[in-house]
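Tokens in:
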């Protein structure tokens, strides 16, 4: 059966068939679509397994204020060596000549055994024609160049000096089609004429489930807010589901009455050697117990989608990122009016150098506003892998009271540092069924799965 495409998808597919690899910016120009339309179209095609998104980054470097001064006047240590090249000088003379850079220049010269002191005299011992870092200064000059163009070892000599080198990280996202999409024939009827004899796809009158409508709406909101969806497996090693999130191996949540384990199945590879070593050290140091790698290998049905996002962050180590994960999770709980053993969860993550808790609250407010919830407040709470942590409370007009919804916070250093994630990570998540209950005025989450046709017909529309 032929696929039906939105006009946005058609334009993107056609453009990529003509030019196989493009950035979102190039697609905007080639399709005349807005950035928001491009983001949505790419996500739709990804979900249909028709588009591939490859992300990479490159670094450009230029000289900062102190770097430019050293480029024109010479490194502080170079200026010191030049003053001593023909004769020894006393400390007072050198301080007067070099001013504020005297201290750093003398420190480096002594450390590298280039100079010696005799009472208040400074004596040149070793004159170098090229000092560490000078080659890089000359290469960069007053330009901005790729970091790959310079000698990494020589660059390291000035990289840590304050305001010497400015590094500009550029993220590159490239879109291409899968093999299935390359052969798709896209037709654009611009004339308005209709071929009444052409074959059309079969139409099956049906209604989309209200929970599916809610999931689609939430996905659309996050995409329009600039987030990218990451997808992971339902089954996960305990390493990513628990250990990487700083959950101790004797925590009650890991017991059989709370988690579904896959009987007799263990993961052969759970992470890199470095990841396993650092996470085990973090557990041993902070929880003070013996960390068992066999426990980390046990396979579980994921209890949350955080295992997907934390693994993605560990593999990519982004300086800045906006991602979300949406899908089914599993908890070994007693079924009740507010609990299920299988439900849907949404989780978002923002990574950024200057990301703060205030930013997180702002994102949450905007999300709830778009979903139609306006009465919101935040309460301090505790979660195992975030600190500080907040609980979102929303007001239910029908019940006349505040109810809990999403949990949120900033990942603890014990979670991020062992995985090499250096920037603050804002995270939040919660059950989608709870939002759907508010939206459709339900008091029992089981109503979504009871197949009550009269209720379903009353809240859904024909598609």
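Residues out:
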């Amino acid at each position: 059966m032929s696929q039906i495409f939105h006009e946005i998808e058609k334009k993107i597919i056609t453009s990529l068939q003509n030019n196989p690899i493009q950035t979102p910016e190039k697609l905007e120009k080639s399709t005349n679509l807005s950035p928001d339309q491009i983001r949505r179209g790419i996500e739709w095609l990804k979900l249909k397994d028709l588009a591939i998104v490859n992300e990479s980054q490159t670094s450009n470097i230029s000289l900062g204020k102190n770097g430019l001064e050293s480029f024109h006047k010479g490194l502080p240590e170079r200026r010191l060596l030049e003053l001593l090249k023909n004769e020894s000088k006393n400390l007072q003379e050198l301080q007067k000549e070099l001013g504020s850079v005297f201290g750093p220049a003398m420190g480096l010269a002594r450390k590298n055994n280039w100079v010696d002191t005799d009472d208040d005299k400074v004596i040149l011992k070793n004159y170098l024609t090229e000092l560490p870092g000078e080659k890089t200064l000359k290469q960069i000059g007053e330009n901005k160049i790729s970091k790959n163009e310079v000698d990494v070892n020589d660059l390291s000599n000035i990289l840590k000096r304050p305001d010497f080198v400015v590094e500009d990280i550029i993220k590159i996202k490239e879109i291409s089609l899968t093999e299935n999409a390359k052969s798709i024939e896209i037709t654009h009827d611009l004339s308005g004429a209709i071929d009444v004899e052409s074959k059309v796809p079969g139409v099956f009158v049906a209604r989309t489930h209200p929970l599916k409508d809610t999931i689609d709406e939430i996905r659309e909101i996050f995409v329009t807010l600039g987030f990218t969806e990451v997808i992971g497996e339902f089954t996960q090693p305990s390493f990513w589901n628990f250990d990487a999130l700083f959950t101790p191996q004797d925590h009650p949540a890991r017991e059989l009455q709370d988690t579904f384990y896959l009987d007799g199945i263990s993961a052969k590879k759970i992470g890199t050697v470095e990841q396993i070593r650092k996470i085990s050290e973090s557990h041993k140091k902070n929880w003070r117990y013996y960390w068992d790698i066999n426990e980390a290998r046990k396979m579980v049905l994921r209890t949350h989608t955080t295992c997907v996002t934390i693994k993605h962050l560990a593999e990519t180590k982004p300086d800045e990122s906006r991602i979300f994960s949406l899908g089914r999770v599993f908890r070994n709980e007693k079924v009740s009016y507010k609990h299920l053993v299988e439900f849907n969860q949404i989780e978002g993550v923002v990574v950024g150098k200057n990301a703060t808790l205030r930013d997180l609250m702002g994102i949450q407010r905007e999300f709830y506003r778009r979903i139609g919830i306006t009465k919101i407040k935040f309460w301090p709470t505790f979660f195992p892998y975030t600190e500080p942590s907040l609980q979102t409370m929303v007001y239910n007009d029908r019940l006349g009271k505040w109810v809990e919804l999403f949990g949120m916070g900033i990942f603890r250093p014990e979670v991020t540092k062992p995985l090499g994630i250096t920037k603050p990570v804002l995270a939040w998540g919660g059950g989608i069924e709870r939002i759907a209950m508010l939206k459709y005025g339900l008091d029992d989450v089981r109503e979504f799965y009871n197949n009550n046709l009269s209720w379903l017909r009353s809240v859904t529309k024909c598609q």
